[in-house]
Task: structure prediction
Amino acid sequence: MASARAFCPDMMTGLVVVCRGTVTVSYKPSVFSFQRTKAAQWKRSFGRGEVVWCPSWLSTDSRIERFDWSRFKVDATVHTTVFEWTQALHDATFSSETMSRLSVDISALVDSIVVHKRRPRELWSHEMTSFAVEEAQLRLLQVHCLNVIGHVAQVPDMAKMLVNDTSLINVVVGMALSSLEDIVVMAAVQTLQRLCTQDAGIARHLLAIPLDLFQGHSLLDGLVDAIDIWRMSPPLTSEVLVLMRHLYKFVPEVASSIPMTWTEPHYQFFQQCLVQPDNNLIHRNLTALVVEALMQAPSVVSAFTAGGLHWGFSRLVHSCDQSLLCDVLHLMLLFCQDEPTRRSLWADRTYHRDLKPTLCAMSTQLEDGFMMERDVKYLDFFNLLLHGHHDPGRCRQYRDYVGAKTTLIKTLTGRIVSVELSPEHRLELQVCIECLWRLCFEHQANAKHVMISCDQVTDILAVVANLFERTHHDQAFQISVLHLIRSLCTDPEFATNVSAVGLQKQLTECAFSSRPDTKSTMRRCGALQAVNAALEYSSGARSALTSGDVSACLALYSSSSVEPQLQRDAMQFLRFACIDPSVRRMVWQTQNDHPGSIIGWESTLQTIAQCQTNYANTRNQVHQELMLHTLGLMAELCLDEATARTFCAYEDAVLPRVMFEMATTQASGAIVFQLLRIVVTLAEYMHQWADPQWLLCEQFGTQPQILRLATLLGEKGCNALVLRFLWLWEQQQPPVDSNNLVGDKASHPIHVYAAESLCKLDTTATERTMFLGYLGCHLKRMVRNGCDLGGLSDASSVAGHICACFRHVVDCLSLQDLGSVPDNWLSYFSWSQDPQYIPYAQVWLLMELVVMAFKMDEVESLQLTRSFRQALEFCTRQAICIIESILSSVHALVGNNSTLCLWLAKSKVGILQWLVDLVNVNTDATVETLALAVLHALVAQSYRFAANAIGLDV
Result:
């Protein structure tokens, strides 16, 4: 009999025996079906090993009918396979005598059925009972034989001999995919597993055998094609997956054939397996199979992604057993090595949302102690989430969550400070350091948490410094330590201590030294980045720099053999060092002493142009980062007024316009921010100089060019800078000028975007303050020139801006702090260095806008709105507080100072009239009391004040 085939109803003309699945035969419905009783509506299902229909040609007995297609219908479950015995095969196999004897036997069987149809148990003859017992014993014997073959195959020489027996392998494979009992099928598959696990050569020879069951194809191809057979039984599925894994492992080249051999039914079945909750064995073996395939042939990841396996395994991360989680995470790491696969996973919000409880559970398991296999994979997965160049924003969110919601920082810190550096603990220390520096990368809160997690006796800085000194011979380990120092320096206290204990000096020596053991580019870059982080966050680290450090950095950057990564980090060193004014002057003095220095404007512009060209040609991120730090250095140098003058005067004053043009054409938000810093710094100085030579409209362009800044609104950190520049530009415009921004519809996008940003929760107080100042400048010019903005700055729009800002204003400001407010508190120099006075500036500008709104024609209708009345009440309260503070200060000054009273009497300050007006307004009792007290002090000490008061009829 031929091997099993997929069932189709046309086979009902022959003898059909079910191999897999179920075949159902029933009466066809007809118009006379109502005449039959329910019992007469016959229907029968046939399972594995049962004969579906006995054909009429098998016997001459007329009682055996042919299959009538008009009376019966046939249905079968999916993937049903059967053995078929056709009439042609019957005639070709048996002689006429044998067929006659068979016909008689079948007639006798029919007679027995007819006679004993009411007593079916009597049909079970002694011969049939003996056959059933013999059949069960035969199956058990088959299992024992297969087990013996499998155990013998554990000896490599015997395995080679068995594999060379092609007929034996054909029999075993035939039993593995037969309709026999599950115990026999499982034993056959396990025997094949043992045959191919001893030696790669044996497995390769096993795959080369042409098998009769698969029409000459190999074992692996046949297994893959026979999915309809082994998918029906979960235990058999699990064993077949183990066998396939062994074949992919010991014959690596066949793994690359997966895209051609695995089809859509395979991927659909595997995805179904992954979503079944109580299928741990299949989950484990399928995970191991896919891991093996990806390790042997990484290129097949695209086929797995196209089949959707990455989605199935990503959801298995949240639902799998704890013992399987380690392997599933390893598989996810392999998937994420393929960029398209990683992007598709990272774009799924549900994946990130469901991952958080798993991260908490992983962190809890890590507290139990170090387990090499588990911890390495866990921490590698954390590394993937915490620090990747693919999605910095998402990585930042993971650092926030893991640092705040898990105990991972405490666990890693505890291991680093408690485990001694030794060969047996080196890997444990390194994986902990690798994860901790990613967790604290550019995250000040996590870095502070590390300091808090340390014991009082043990200092993390001392441990890290000791590791740095003792690992010069292990470059990879020392680079990890340097990265940890860089991340922990985001905590200003740690950064200051780095310079205080002398570690900063060691790092600079490592970065700038030319000794053979420090020539490694990665090591020197790591040392420079650690120093740069300390310089960025600590004023103590910056003040500890010497002229020798600056000269060494300049020499390193100027070296013709230096690599781009070192150039980038050296430029970053100079940029952060120049945050300190004294270092800034030191660096600029170095440029003056050496006209050809890299800090000169000509060299800097050449560097920027070269970076743009190199990045356009290679798309290497290093060149763009070098350009960013170069512009950052220029921004820091321009904060010095003398340096800013040289910058503006260079090459007939072309640089301000060049910086402005670059800002409006760059694609990188970080580079745009640095360019805007330069532009706004120059604009502030030009506004201070009040020199016709340095008018903003002459240096940066007229209205059409200036309004191109509207395209930069929305970039990170750029809103306040753009609005401040527009504010300064407007202030320098003459009273009547067709080029001003007031009254022009082109400024509409600026108004709209700024107004929308006022309503957002993430808008900073500085951005709101700059917009209020910019809008106030507009209104002053509108009132002065009688301009109409066509609804952009009418009373209703202004009131809307006021109410939007009022929702975020600070209502508990201490006016006593205003005594130390600098004169330029609204300038970029003030709020970029110390933004503590921005809330006061916001309140002041808000009150100015309320006053301007009251001067508009539509103000009567605005008084009916609740939000505007609340804003008005707030401004009134603030004004009363300010007046009270002023009156208290004046009363303290004039109470015992007759000289000041005489000076006020002779001057034209008009303080008496102001005090009388305050008393007459009678708005607040405290204000009236203070005004009367000041008035009494003035009148008591000055006759002129007394005479004037009588004249005013006080």
In short: DSSP finds 51 helices and six strands in the chain. The chain has a mean pLDDT of 82.
